[in-house]
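Most newcomers find our protein records easier to grasp once they have seen one. Sequence and backbone structure share a record, each on its own labelled line. To make this concrete, we reproduce a full record directly below:
***
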Amino acid sequence: MNTSVPPVTTPTFAEAFRFWLKLGFISFGGPTGQIAIMHEELVERRKWISDARFLHALNYCMLLPGPEATQLATYIGWLLHRTWGGIVAGSLFVLPSALILWLLSFVYVTWGNVPSIAAVFYGLKPAVLAIVGAAVIRLGSRALKNEVMWSLASLAFVAIYFFKAPFPMIVLGAGLIGLVGGKFWREKFLVIDAHAPKLGDASVLSDEAESPAHTKPSPARAIKVCAVSVALWFAPVAGLALWLGPGHTLFREGIFFSKAAMVTFGGAYAVLPYVSQQAVEHYGWLSAPQMLDGLGLAETTPGPLIMVLQFVGFLGAWNHPGPLAPLLAATLGAFITTWTTFVPCFLWIFLGAPHIEQMRGNVKLTTALSAVTAAVVGVILNLAVWFGQHVLFPSPGRVDWFALVIAVIAFVGLWRWKWNVIAVVLGAGLLGLMFKFIAP
């Protein structure tokens, strides 16, 4: 019997492009759902990257400001196809949601909410919950190899769910525990390591493979990355200042969201109170009810939840267009907000990822990342529970039985019969549309 590992084929740039574009349209459920979909597609189904390398990249992205799922896509795209691979992966992860949210924002300011759109997303949410649940189990089974890792995951869940501990502090605390624990109890902390692949587990970016040549860090490359990224980041902001003046809403949005991009640790919900306070109370770009409506729209679109900031930029410029037509001002507001929010993500990856790849075989770093991964499982479980509460129990004492049935069927199909994630998402959306029109 032949027990050799079957060969895997490196995807072409065109194949990767098509996947990242498809991912941009199906990445529902916030960072938890998006990471779950990427893990299912890239690690389990396509085998473009091994589980250990996926988690290695994810742990780094969890430490960065900005949307971690977008940065993870950029990181993996960069590993596969150099700089342009990262640019395409990160851009296509954001672009569909940006276009959809622009359209929904225009519909919102023109006609209000559209029931048919809400119905589709009503069906999507329980499917995303099933995807998240399957991902938590899958990631937990690989990261929680012993009682120490289980304890770290449990502590992380308790800290963030019950005590609302800041997410960055949980990650940093787990990393420190891993560093110290790896020194005195290495066998319990060295759980994310390079192992010989099991039959059928070969990957394009495997645990044993050397990092590609283009991932090697150098001072010249770092200087180039910083110069180009910062120039691209602030060029549109400077252009708006020259065109409309520093007092115009568009320029002020560019400056404000550039600052927000550097402090958005812990995901969208960690930064939303700060953005809401400034946008509503200080700048007066929109009202508090409009801010909540924007969050609802962002939650029902694919892509990062931080896209709610684009809605803020759209509404702010629509309400304060200055000499411009409201729609033109709002479109530019959506653009400058999205640009200054996501361009820094490419800087963090292209600047830091080469060093993270260089340290991949470092035992001290591996023990720290093993502990961080265990904590991340607890954090993802917290997000899954939070998401499940909102989907299955929309109000106190009421169970949404339609959502519960869809979630259970989707979970069993994904876990037992390995249903395709895209088919599950599209089918659930269609069922939600049919249910809303049939149900009284």
Notes: Confidence is low (pLDDT under 50) at residues 1-5. Residues 68-111 form the longest helix (44 residues).
